[in-house]
Amino acid sequence: MSIKKNYLYNLIYQVLVMILPLITVPYVSRVLLPHGVGTFAYTASIVSYFSFLGILGIDTYGNKLIAMSRDDKRKMSENFFSLYFLQLMLTMTSLIVYIITAIFFIQQDRSIALIQTISLLGTVFDCSWFFFGIELFKKIVTRNIIIKLLSLAAIFILVKQPSDLPVYTVIMCLSVFLSSLIMWVYLKGRIMIVRVSFRQIMTHLKPSMIYFIPGIALQVYFVLNKTMIGIVANNSEVGIFDYADKIRMMALSVVTSLGTVMLPRMAHTFAVGKIEKAKEYLLKSLDFSTLLAIPLMFGVAAIAKEFIPWYMGEHFLKSIVVLIILAPTIVLMAWSGVFGTQYLLPLGKMKAYTASVYAGAIVNFGANLLLIKPFGSIGASFATLAAEVVVTLVQLYYVRALIPFKHIVPKTMYYLGAGTVMFLLLQMIGRMMGASILTTGVQVALGCVVYFASIALIETMKHDGMVYHEIGKVLQKYRSR
Question: How far apart are CA 280 and CA 398, in angstroms?
C-alpha cells in the first residue's frame, strides 16, 4: 500500500483516538469538573507505567521486526508468535503487580485505580504492532471508528453527574481493551501457526530492552508530569493540564501520524540497502511535517483564549495559559518525530536516540520539581516545553551530517512568515468576535485559507523573481553582443 494511503489511514486513526474522546470534553468537563477529570488522568498515568513495563519496547521493536521480515511469511509468523509470547509473559506479570499495588499502596482513588486494570488487560492482548509492521492501517482505523463511537454514545447516555466517575472510567477502559481484543480477528490468513521455542522467545528480550530504555525517558515527560501534579499539587490541576495537553496532542496527531507510517517503510528501505531512497523519504517527510506543524502551533496559540471558555467551561480557564505555553512543542515534536522515529530508530542508532530522550527526561523531571509546587499545571507546561527543546536540539546534532539544512531553512522561514500572518489575523478575529463556537469556526476556516494562500503567494513571488533573474541574464548576454 502506498505511503499516501497509509498516511491517510493512520491520520484518521490518530485523529479518531484524540478527537472522539475530545467530543465528550464539553460534556465531561462540566459533569465531572476538574477534580473528576484529574482523578481519571492521575490514575491513568499510574496504570500507564505498568502498561509500559509490560510492553517493554515490543510495540516499536515488533513494528520494525515485522516490517523487515514481511516478505517471508514463515519468518514473519515466527517473529510474531515469539514476540507475542514474550509480551504475554511480561504483561501478565505487570498486571499482577499493578493489582497488588492498587490494593495495598493506593489509598485515595483506589476504586478508580482498580477499574483502570481493564485498560491494562488491553495491553495483554495488543497486537497492533503487527499490523503497523505490514502497513495495514485500514483495519486499525475501522476498529477504532466502531469502538470509539460506541464509547462516545455510552458516555452521553450513562455519565450524568460527578458521582458517575467510576462509570466513565469503565467506559474509557473498556474501549482500550476491546480495541486490542478485536484485532485478533484480522490475524487469520496473515500468519501461519508455527511452533516457537522458549529460546526463540527470549532472543527478543534484549532487542526489546534496547527500545524500552529510551521509552523510559519518553514516559517521564509524557506521563510523569501528570503524576507529579497529582502528588505535589492536586487532581484539579491535573485535569487542567490534561485537557490542555489533549488539545495539543490532537493537533500534533495530524503530523505524527506520518511518523508511524514511515517507520516500517524506512526500516524496510534501509534493510534492502536503498540508502538514497531513504534519505529522499526523510527530506520530504521533514518538509511536509514542518508545513503542517507551524500553522498548527500558531493556530492553537491564537484560538486558545476564545476556544477554551465555550469548549470546556469556566472551571478550565487556566488551561488557556497552559495550552499557549505547550503550543511550540507541536513543531518541536514534529521535528523530533522525523529525526528520531524516521531516521535514528529504523537505522538502529539507539545510542543517539536514547541520549536525546534521556536529556529531555532529565530536564523535564528537574523542571517539574522546581515549577509544579509554585505554579501547578503552568509550571508543568513550561517543563514540557523545556524538555522538547532539549530533545530536538540533541537529535539535530546527531542528524546534522545527513540533512542539508541550508536547503530546509528557507522553506521553514516561508512557513513561519505565513504562520505569523495567520496568527495575527486569528487574534484580531478573536478580539472582535469574543469566545464562541462561531468564533472558533471562523478562525479555523480563515486560518487555513490565509496560511496556504500566503505560502502560495511567497512561492509565486519566488518563482517570478527567478524568471526575472533569467530574463536579466538573457538581456545581459544580448547587450554584450
Answer: 18
Instruction: Label residue 299 exposed, middle or buried (CB < 10 Å: 0-12, 13-18, 19+).
Output: buried
Query: What is the pLDDT of the chain when averaged over all its residues?
Result: 85
Are 311 and 26 in contact by the 8 Å Cβ rule? The answer is yes
Please compute Rg for the chain using Cα positions.
Answer: 24
Domain ranges of the chain: 3-403, 416-481
pLDDT tens string 85-118 = 999 999 999 999 999 999 998 888 899 999 999 9
Q: Is the pLDDT of residue 391 over 70?
A: yes
Q: How far apart are CA 365 and CA 360, in angstroms?
A: 9
Give backbone dihedrals phi and psi of 51, rounded to 5 degrees, phi first: -65, -40
Residue 124: all three cell numbers together: 495483554
What pLDDT was estimated at residue 11?
63
What is the phi/psi pair of residue 402, to 5°? -90, -40
* 357/472 Cα distance (integer angstroms): 51
Q: Which helix (H) or strand (E) holds 190?
A: none
Three-class DSSP labels, 57-92: CHHHHHHHHHHHHCCCHHHHHHHHHHHHHHHHHHHH
Give 158-163's long-range contacts (Cβ < 8 A, gap of 24+).
Answer: 159/27, 159/28, 159/31, 159/32, 160/31, 161/31, 162/31, 162/32, 162/33, 162/35, 162/36
Average pLDDT, integer, range 347-373: 88
DSSP one-letter string for 80-148: HHHHHHHHHHHHHHHHHHHHHHHHHT--TTHHHHHHTHHHHHHHHH--HHHHHHTT-HHHHHHHHHHHH
Closest residue by Cα to residue 287 from 220, 319, 334, 217: 334
Cell numbers for 371? 515549577
Q: Mean per-residue pLDDT for 398-427?
A: 85
Give residue-wise pLDDT tens across range 254-305: 776 655 555 556 556 666 666 677 677 777 778 888 888 999 999 999 999 9
Q: How distant, in Å, are the alpha carbons of 96, 164, 171 from that of 157? A: 33, 11, 11
Nearest to 158, CA basis, from 32, 313, 306: 32
Q: State the cell numbers at 54.
A: 509490560
CA 92 vs. chain centroid, Å, equals: 26
Rounded to 5°, the CA angle 280-286-292 comes to 135
